[in-house]
Design brief:
about 600 residues, 8-stranded antiparallel sheet, 7-stranded antiparallel sheet, about 15% helix, about 35% strand, disordered N terminus
C-alpha cells in the first residue's frame, strides 16, 4: 500500500489510544497500557516473523550464522565457488503469516564478496499521517529552548484537555524505552498526544495549521516511524565480506583529504571499489568547523587523523581487512618539549569547536553528546598533511613543524600544512604553552594513543589499519546491548534530546562482524524513499542479530546512508538533493 494513499474504509482502522473524554476531569491515561501492550505484542510478533524470514532466506545466500566448525579456509573457498555459480539467480523466498513474499536477490561481486537486496513488506501494517503535539521545554544539555514530543503523564492529560476545549479529538499514547538499551531506564518512557488520521502529509496540513493557530506546538508525523507500528516497507542491502577467501583489501578512507566531502559512490568509482558504504559522523556546517572533517575517531592507513569524542563505538579494520572488530575506543595525543607536556585535544578540527563534545575541557559537557557542538577556551589542535585546506585563522598561536618535528615558525594562525610537516594551533593556555616552549630549530615530540576503553589495551596501528567511528555499539559478544546513553545519543534526563534520531525509524548504515569473522555492511532506506521507513537503533540491533552478527555498530545514517556496488549507488538515499557528500567511507577494494 502506498504511503500516499490510505483506503477510506480500512479493514484495520486505527483505534485512538485512550481518547480524552469530552468533560473534565480527563480520563486517566492508565488505560492506555492494555492497548499499547497489545500493539507491543503484535509488533514483537511481527518483528519476530521478520527476523525469522531474514534468517530463513539469508542462511543460504549470505552464509552467515554458521557454526565455528565451518570457519576453515578450505571450506570457505569451496563455499564461495559454489555460491558464485548458484547466485546468478534469485536466492529464494520465505512467506510467513503477516508478511508478504520476500525475494532476496544475491550477487557474488567477487570471490568472498556478496551483496543481497530485499524489500520486506507487511501488508497488515497500515500507518498514517497524524499531528503530534510537543511540549516546549528547556534542554538539560544546552540550557536552550527545545520541544519534546514525549513527556509526562500530567502534561499529556493537560494538553489533551486543552485540545478538547478547542474542539480537537485528541488521543494519548504511552511510549516505552527500547528493550535493547543497556544503560537507560526500562519500561515506560512517557506519553505523547496526537490528533487526527490522514492519508497524506498534505491532508494533515489543515489540521496542523489549526492546532498551531490554537496556540499549541506541533508537527505532522508518519506513524510508520513509530516502534509501536510495524514497518510496512523496508528496503535493505547487505554486503558480506569473507576475509578468508577475499583477495582484496578493506579500508576506511577519506580519499586523501580529511577536509573534503565526497559522495560514497564517487569515492568508490575513483578507487575502483567493489562495495562502499558511508562511514562515521562528520562536520556538515561551517558553524561547527570545517565541513568533511570527522567529529569522532578517524584512522586511515595507520595514521590518526581525528580524535575520538569520548569513548564511542568504532569499527577497527586490521591488516587491510584480514580482521575486524567493533569496540568502544578512546584516543589521546600530546606534545612534549623537554620535560614539559601539553595535551592535544583535537586533530584536524577548528580550535575551540568540538562537535559531539566528549573532550577534556569541553563546555557545556565533557560527555559525548550527538550533534551538539561544544566549545574549548584552552584548546590545542594538531593538523596533519591530510588536512588539504586553508588552516583556520583567528586568535591564538600557531607552530609549524617539519617532517622531523623541528619548529619552522611560531606566529599567527593561518596558511596551510607543509608537505610532510604538521601544524599546532593553540588557544588560551595552550597558546601560552606553545609560545613558551616552541623555539625555531628545536624539536617538539608528538605522541598519540588509541585504546580499547573496556580493557585499556592500546591498539597498535600501522600501515593497512583503519578505524571508522560513530555510535552507538548495537551488539556486543553476541547479545543486543545498545549503550545509547553512554555514547551520548540519548539522555534519560531530557526526552527532548534525540528522540527522533534514536527511537524513530530512520535511514541507517550498519557494520557488523559474525562468528566466522565475516564483515557485514548493511544499509536500510528510510524517510519513505521508495516507501521504506528505516530502523530504530534497537531494530538495527535486532536485524544484525538475525544476520548472525556477534558485534555491530551504528554508522552515520539519515541522508548519509549510501551503498555503492562497482562504483554505482544501489540504495535509495533520502536527501531531496540526491546522494549526500560525506566524510570518510568504508571501501572494499579488489
Amino acid at each position: 500500500m502506498s504511503k500516499q494513499q490510505i483506503p477510506a474504509a480500512s479493514a484495520n482502522p486505527v483505534v485512538p489510544v485512550a481518547p480524552v473524554a469530552p468533560v473534565a476531569p480527563v480520563a486517566p491515561v492508565a488505560p492506555v497500557a492494555p492497548a499499547t501492550a497489545r500493539r507491543s505484542r503484535a509488533r514483537r510478533r511481527t518483528g519476530s516473523a521478520l527476523a525469522a524470514a531474514a534468517v530463513l532466506v539469508l542462511a543460504g545466500p549470505l552464509g552467515v550464522g554458521a557454526s565455528a566448525a565451518q570457519a576453515h579456509a578450505d571450506h570457505d573457498h569451496d563455499h564461495d565457488r559454489a555460491d558464485h555459480a548458484a547466485l546468478a539467480a534469485p536466492s529464494g523466498s520465505a512467506y510467513l503469516n503477516g508478511l508478504g513474499q520476500e525475494q532476496w536477490t544475491t550477487a557474488a561481486v567477487a570471490p568472498g564478496v556478496r551483496v543481497s537486496t530485499v524489500t520486506i513488506k507487511n501488508a497488515a501494517s497500515t500507518p498514517f499521517w497524524t499531528v503530534t503535539l510537543q511540549q516546549p521545554t528547556t534542554s538539560v544539555i544546552t540550557g536552550g529552548p527545545t520541544n519534546a514530543e514525549v513527556a509526562s503523564q500530567s502534561w499529556a492529560q493537560d494538553t489533551a484537555t486543552q485540545l478538547q476545549a478547542h474542539g480537537f479529538q485528541a488521543r494519548v499514547e504511552a511510549v516505552q524505552w527500547p528493550a535493547g538499551y543497556s544503560d537507560t531506564p526500562h519500561g515506560l518512557m512517557g506519553y505523547r498526544v496526537r490528533v487526527g488520521q490522514f492519508p497524506t502529509q498534505a491532508a494533515a496540513g489543515p489540521q496542523l495549521a489549526a492546532v498551531k493557530a490554537a496556540g499549541f506546538t506541533a508537527f505532522s508525523q508518519w506513524t510508520g516511524y513509530d516502534t509501536q507500528t510495524p514497518a510496512d516497507v523496508e528496503n535493505i542491502h547487505v554486503a558480506v565480506i569473507n576475509p578468508r577467501s577475499f583477495g582484496g583489501t578493506v579500508e576506511a578512507t577519506h580519499a586523501g583529504n580529511v577536509a573534503q566531502r565526497l559522495t560514497t559512490s564517487s569515492v568508490a568509482a575513483q578507487l575502483g571499489s567493489l562495495v562502499g558504504v558511508n562511514g562515521g559522523f562528520f562536520i556538515t556546517s561551517n558553524n561547527d568547523g570545517v565541513q568533511g572533517t570527522m567529529s569522532g575517531l578517524g584512522v586511515y592507513d595507520g595514521k590518526l587523523e581525528s580524535l575520538s569524542s569520548g569513548s564511542r563505538g568504532a569499527l577497527v579494520i586490521e591488516d587491510g581487512g584480514q580482521r575486524f572488530q567493533v569496540a568502544n575506543l578512546a584516543s589521546s595525543a600530546s606534545v612534549r618539549s623537554g620535560a614539559a607536556v601539553e595535551q592535544i585535544q583535537g586533530v584536524n578540527r577548528v580550535p575551540g569547536l568540538v562537535r559531539d563534545c566528549g573532550r577534556t575541557g569541553a563546555v557545556p559537557t565533557t560527555h559525548p553528546v550527538q550533534d551538539i557542538t561544544c566549545t574549548e577556551a584552552d584548546d590545542l589542535v594538531l593538523f596533519t598533511p591530510e588536512f588539504v585546506a586553508a588552516l583556520p585563522t583567528g586568535a591564538g598561536t600557531q607552530v609549524v613543524l617539519d617532517a622531523d618535528g623541528k619548529v619552522v615558525s611560531v606566529g599567527a594562525r593561518g596558511g596551510s600544512v607543509p608537505a610532510g610537516g604538521s601544524v599546532l594551533q593553540g588557544l588560551g593556555a595552550a597558546a601560552t604553552w606553545l609560545t613558551a616552549h616552541a623555539t625555531v630549530g628545536h624539536r617538539l615530540a608528538v605522541s598519540e594513543s588509541v585504546v580499547d576503553a573496556s580493557t585499556g589495551r592500546r591498539l597498535r596501528l600501522g600501515a593497512g589499519d583503519s578505524v571508522a567511528s560513530a555510535a552507538p555499539v548495537l551488539v556486543r559478544d553476541g547479545r543486543i546491548a545498545v549503550d545509547a546513553a553512554t555514547e551520548g545519543v540519548v539522555d534519560p534526563r531530557d526526552l527532548s534530546y534525540n528522540y527522533q534520531w534514536a527511537n524513530a525509524r530512520q535511514p541507517r548504515t550498519i557494520a557488523g562482524i559474525d562468528a566466522r569473522g565475516n564483515l557485514l555492511l548493511v544499509t536500510v532506506d528510510g524517510r519513505l524513499t521508495a516507501g521504506s521507513e528505516g530502523f530504530t537503533l534497537f531494530e538495527e540491533a535486532e536485524f544484525m542479530r538475525t544476520l548472525g552478527a556477534v558485534q555491530a555498530l551504528n554508522l552515520d545514517g539519515g541522508g548519509s546512508s549510501a551503498m555503492a556496488v562497482n562504483g554505482k549507488l544501489v540504495n535509495n538515499t533520502s536527501d531531496a538533493t540526491g546522494e549526500r557528500p560525506v566524510g570518510d567511507t568504508i571501501q572494499i577494494l579488489p
